[in-house]
């Protein structure tokens, strides 16, 4: 990989999972790509991600991308060399009143060849004795789903992209071209000329888009997690990934040793776009107070740190790939709001197809 590339078919700003998968899909189509990132790969939200992947999308915003994303992760990428999913199963808890919608989604997943079941609270308690689920909740259980080590995935995607991907470690400072036609990206290490540009730089995309007159409103939202070390570990290996739609709690086994990673959706916005190791005592208490209702072993478990980070949030609250017509050649893929990792293979496929059209 060169750090000096000055021209390519496509310039991608952002070496997170969205930019990397798109770049890999572009090189698979025979196109040359320069990925520009000031932090190398996975330096933003991606590197902090919990890596939970599943096909069921209770938000209803991206059901097709979530299912296709899981399928790609199960295939382990183009050459079958990405890390395999830690298939401890994924359990998404929903209010019992929404079970008809969940059952409908499960039928569609099954029709597409995925394994999924709706479980009652009673069935969940029997199957996963460590979990406590009240009767007014139900769960969608996907035995093939689980979580992935995000940095290892990012490295594997970069490797799959091969020599047609050049990684340029620099800050993108503005887009080149006019409001009619994109011509590349200017960076702190010189210009990259390209007839098509993908902005996948999280909130860093906004000022770059503005440099060619495109309004791309994004803000940061706090996303982080805590690590806990439960004293009772007997069935930790059987603990599925859990996402509780009713409280915003989510958790998974850490993977090595005896830790559990747990987070709770935060409404805090406009936080710094930084990834910091550790969590405040207040955050640890906030997370513990919620997750202990589903996994009581965390009520007394000592905290072992965590991550304080962010993701980019679009005004609509969910991510989008947008093909801009002025300037032509510009595609944006931003605003994933805490859920972009599981979607990335499908988002990348879609964005790459649009960029290839722009180049041809
Ligand atoms: C704590 C945490 C847990 C999460 N857990 C999950 C999960 O379990 N499952 C799930 O599906 N999703 C999860 N997410 C969300 C998911 O990680 C993100 O949605 C996804 O990683 C976003 O990827 P991205 O490529 O869009 O952005 P990023 O990974 O943020 O990449 C953007 C890149 O752009 C670069 N950049 C910005 N501005 C510039 C510039 N001017 N010049 C050059 N480079 C620039 C940055 O350095 C960064 O590397 C989680 C997120 C966090 C923070």
Structure keywords:
360 residues; alpha+beta; FAD/NAD(P)-binding domain; D-Amino Acid Oxidase, Chain A, domain 2; nine-stranded mixed sheet; binds flavin-adenine dinucleotide
Mind explaining what this structure looks like?
- The protein is of the alpha+beta class and 360 residues long.
- The chain folds into two domains: 10-47 and 151-218 and 316-359, FAD/NAD(P)-binding domain, CATH 3.50.50; 87-146 and 219-311, D-Amino Acid Oxidase, subunit A, domain 2 (D-Amino Acid Oxidase, Chain A, domain 2, 2-Layer Sandwich).
- The chain is 27% helix and 27% strand.
- The chain is built from nine helices and 20 strands.
- The chain has helices spanning 17-28, 45-48, 63-75, 99-111, 121-127, 150-161, 205-210, 281-291, 340-359, and strands at 10-13, 33-36, 52-53, 90-95, 117-120, 137-142, 146-147, 165-168, 172-177, 182-187, 192-193, 196-199, 219-228, 241-244, 249-253, 260-264, 276-277, 303-313, 320-323, 330-334.
- The strands form four sheets. Strands 5-6-4-14-15-16-13-18-17 form a nine-stranded mixed beta sheet, sandwiched between helices.
- Helix 1 (17-28) crosses helix 9 (340-359).
- It binds flavin-adenine dinucleotide (FAD).
- Flavin-adenine dinucleotide binds at residues 13-19, 36-39, 43-46, 48-52, 171-172, 200-202, 204, 223-225, 307, 309, 311, 336, 338-342.
- InterPro entries: FAD-dep_OxRdtase (IPR006076), FAD/NAD-bd_sf (IPR036188).
- It comes from Streptomyces xanthochromogenes.
- Keywords: Oxidoreductase.
